[in-house]
Amino acid sequence: MALKCGIVGLPNVGKSTLFNALTSAKALAANYPFATKDPNVGMITVPDTRLDKLSELVNPQKVQPTTIEIVDIAGLIKGASKGEGLGNQFLANIREVDAICHVVRCFENDNVIHVDGSVDPVRDKDIIDTELLLKDIETVEKRMEKLRKQAKSGQKEDQKMVAIGEEILAHLEAENPARTLEMEAEGADLLKEMMLLTNKPILYVCNVDEESVIDGNEHTTRFKEAVKNENAEVIFVSAGIEADIAELETKEERLEFLEEMGLKEPGVNKLIQACYKLLNLITYFTAGEKEVRAWTIRNGWKAPQAAGVIHTDFEKGFIRAEVIKYNDYVALGSESAVKDAGKMGVEGKEYVVLDGDVMHFRFNV
Predict the structure, then answer these.
(1) How far apart are CA 336 and CA 339, in angstroms?
(2) d(Cα 102, Cα 27) in Å, to the nearest integer?
(3) CA distance 95 to 112
(4) Which residues of the chain have pLDDT under 70?
C-alpha cells in the first residue's frame, strides 16, 4: 500500500531541513524562497519496535519494514491559487498526496529570514489555508455549473445533488476546510469525488527551537488554540535537532544524543505515528525464516483485503488466515510454541485484522 504525505509550508519555515532529516536525503535547504523547485520525494522507513522484536525471535534472512513516501512540496506564497510563485505546481502536487504535513515556523532566529518579516504561525497557516480554500471554491463552482445543468431536467436526484453542492460551497466560503463538514453518504461521496484540497487529513508540525521541543512555547500555545476545532493533529518537532540526529552514524549515538536532549524518540517517529493515526492505518506482520515483514493496511480491513496487499492472488484465492497475537508470539517465543499452547487462531473471510497481528495466509489460485 503506497502512501504519500506532502510536506507543505511557507518558504523558510524549515520544510526542507525537516524533509532531509526524515529521509536522510539532501534536498537543497537554502535560506531563500523556492530552493525546492521540484517536489523532492523520499521514502521513510516506519520505525516499529515490534518488528525488531519479531526479528530477534525469528532471526530471518531479511527484515522488511513498511514505508511512507514523503513529498517535499515547493514553498507557497499568497496568490498561489491564481498561479503566483509556484502556485499551480504546488496545487497539482498537493492534490496527489494522501495527507498533508503542514510545517509552521514557531522559532525565532534572526539569521533565517521570514518571507513576511516576522514569526507568526497563525498568520502563516491562514495564508496557506486561504490559497487552498480559494482553489477548492473554484473546483466546487465548476462542478456546480454541471450539476445545475443536469438539474434542469427536473430529476429529484439531480436537484438533491445541487443542494448538497450548495452546502459544500457555503461551508468553504465561510472559510471552513472541507474536512470539518459532516455529511450523509451522498454528500460524503460528492466531497470525495471532487478531491478537494482542504478535505485531506492534516498534521500541523510546529517547528520549534531546541528548548521548546518538549513543552512548546508561546507561539505553539497560540497556534494550538487557533486550530483546536479543525479536526487536525499538532506535534512539536525541532528540524535542527532532527538534522543533527540524521548526521549520526550509529543507533547508539542517536540514542545517546536523544537522552542528552531529554527526548524519548526522534521527532521523525512522532511524525510518522501521527501520519498513521491521521490516515487510520495499522500494521500487521508476516514472520518466517526467509523474511519478517511489516505491512500497512487501513484500520477495519478484513483478512482477504489484508492478504491482497501482499499479492492480489492471495485475496482472490483466500481460504483462511492463521493469526497469532503479537503479545502471545513474544511471550511464548516462537510460532511452534504458540501452536503447542493452542494460541493460534484460524480465521475466515470476515475476520477484521487488528494492529500487531502476525499472520499467515492460506490461498488457492
Answers:
(1) 5
(2) 17
(3) 29
(4) 1-2, 25-39, 74-90, 113-116
* pTM exceeds 0.85, yes or no: no
Show the 3-state SS of the chain: CCCEEEEECCCCCCHHHHHHHHHCCCCCCCCCCCCCCCCEEEEEECCCHHHHHHHHHHCCCEEECCEEEEEECCCCCCCHHHCCCCHHHHHHHHHCCCEEEEEEECCCCCCCCCCCCCCCHHHHHHHHHHHHHHHHHHHHHHHHHHHHHHHCCCCHHHHHHHHHHHHHHHHHHCCCCHHHCCCCHHHHHHHHHHCCHHHCCEEEEEECCHHHCCCCCHHHHHHHHHCCCCCCEEEEECHHHHHHHHHCCCHHHHHHHHHHHCCCCCHHHHHHHHHHHHCCEEEEEEECCCEEEEEEEECCCEHHHHHHHHCHHHHHCEEEEEEECHHHHHHHCCHHHHHHCCCCEEECCCCECCCCCEEEEEECC
Q: Cell digits for 178?
A: 472541507
The pLDDT value recorded for residue 271 is 86
